[in-house]
Description:
The complex is a heterotrimer.
Chain A lengths: L10 E12 L2 E7 L11 E7 L5 E7 L9 E6 L7 H7 L5 E8 L13 E6 L3 H13 L6 E7 L8 H10 L3 E7 L16 H7 L8 E6 L1 H13 L7 E5 L6
Parallel strand pairs in A: 7-8, 7-10, 8-9, 10-11
Antiparallel strand pairs in A: 1-2, 1-6, 2-5, 3-4, 3-6
Chain B lengths: L5 E2 L4 H7 L8 E4 L5 E3 L4 E5 L2 E5 L6 E8 L2 E5 L3 E5 L4
Chain C lengths: L27 E2 L20 E6 L5 E4 H5 L4 E8 L4 E12 H4 L9 E6 L4 E5 L9 E6 L2 E2 L9 E3 L12 E7 L28
Parallel strand pairs in C: 1-5, 2-11
Antiparallel strand pairs in C: 2-3, 4-5, 5-8, 6-7, 6-11, 8-9, 8-10
Amino acid sequence: MTEIRGRLAWRIGEVDETRPETPHAKSLFLEVPGWEGHKAGQHVDVRLTAEDGYQAQRSYSIASAPEDGRLALMVERLDDGEVSPYLTDELRVGDRLELRGPIGGWFTWGVREGSPLFLVAGGSGIAPLMAMILHRAAAGSDASCRLLYSSRSREETIYADELDHLAAEDGMLKVTHTLTRSQPPGWTGYSRRLDKEMLREVAPSPEELPLTFVCGATPLVETVATALVELGHDPNRVKTERFGPTGG
Amino acid sequence: MDENRLDGNAAGGVLGEVFPFEMTSAQVACVSCGAVWRLGQAMVYMHDMGTIMRCATCDNPLIRVARGSGRYWLDLRGVRYLQAEEA
Amino acid sequence: MSEGFFSRGFRGRRRQPEGDIPLPPGQYLVEGFPVLSAGPTPRTPLDEWDLSIVGGVDEPRRWSWEEFRALPSEEITTDIHCVTKWSKLGTSWEGISVDTLLEGVETAAEHVLAFCDGGYTTNLPLEDVTGGRAWVAYSYGGEPLEPEHGGPARLLVPHLYFWKSAKWVRGLRLLSHDEPGFWESLGYHNYGDPWREQRYWGD
């Protein structure tokens, strides 16, 4: 659905809380006066302005549910990045951040859109999918939802505890991790990059007509989307959000 | 496969500067190959010079946007039609 | 509208040159070599690659990769300036001068349209690619030019903004009229002199 809402304008939010998620990723919680709400999957553009007027801009998926009062962004620190190190290292509670949004009507999901829901994330690509998972929980939905999540290690798995907790409480939410670089002792799960065989084992069957959302670095997204279509999934039911070469 | 490309969503911000609609769910037909897409499915290449949205089938530019000196330039010649739904 | 807003503690990645090295107005130095892509990176195999001079010429010319690389080449050390405001000083290239490619060509044309794999084009006055001001470069920093930077070969016209140094160049079309290229038809300046800050139409 396309809504007429006037041209997208920049507005100011205030940092209410920051929370480290992993050694390289941090959640930022923002209060944005007048925020009219969003759909799970949408993103905001964030703009930084130096005192001499120089500006840099990046897009960040909204990681919080629409039902939440605050806006959560999940920032992965890229060592050679221009914006992410500022957001993770410098930005403090009480600072103001310029942003616009919510943006995007294609890569969104709401409980009314049905199920089963199949979510595939690599690294920081979990952010928009987390919004969908939290929205589903907040709406009290029992729609079937499966998450396949690729991270380098347990320490680098963003939202690890929160996802364990949500899955433990909800029989219709199934979370499968693959840890590609190192695994904890006794790990019996997947330990390789996402591939067609893993998707064949974890994804709902094409006959179930799942709605699939894939988010992460561009190479991962392309591998997964191609594999799903080869496995017989309808390409129009596989929505992708590429984060670019590095995924940040 | 190109590492630099993004999905149509990524252009949502710049399109939102120009159009009052939510554009990533608008439907377009490619003039070059006839394929019909939602703009969210287009392949987007964007950087400080501008935003180029390409057909996911044939790579033909669908929409090009640049901004500078207080003006926007829009080239929609790659789109045969653009269909946006009323709210 | 966020007038006067700035982000506490944000400085960005730029730096100014040490000493008195002047940069064109509005430019700053960068460490890396940014890649700006308007489309998929072409990857033409060398045995399918050729370079042509076509259009308003007595006789069109064409070189295969081997023939092209057999032409007398030059080493070029030069500054480059992108319209997106980054500059790099003292970059080193190897390439064939466009003067060499046009040697003996008879033409009344005054304009050139460079055309490239992937469909990119850019237009220049013929006099701006001659007189030792332009090359078709196949090597950067002592290494073969990588596809993401325009390899196997790109146009190199360092006295103009770098969008004129067309990546993945496959030829020059000589024309008696001026035909705006990919960015020139989207509001970018037709000529593009960094020292007069000609970024957009009307600048």
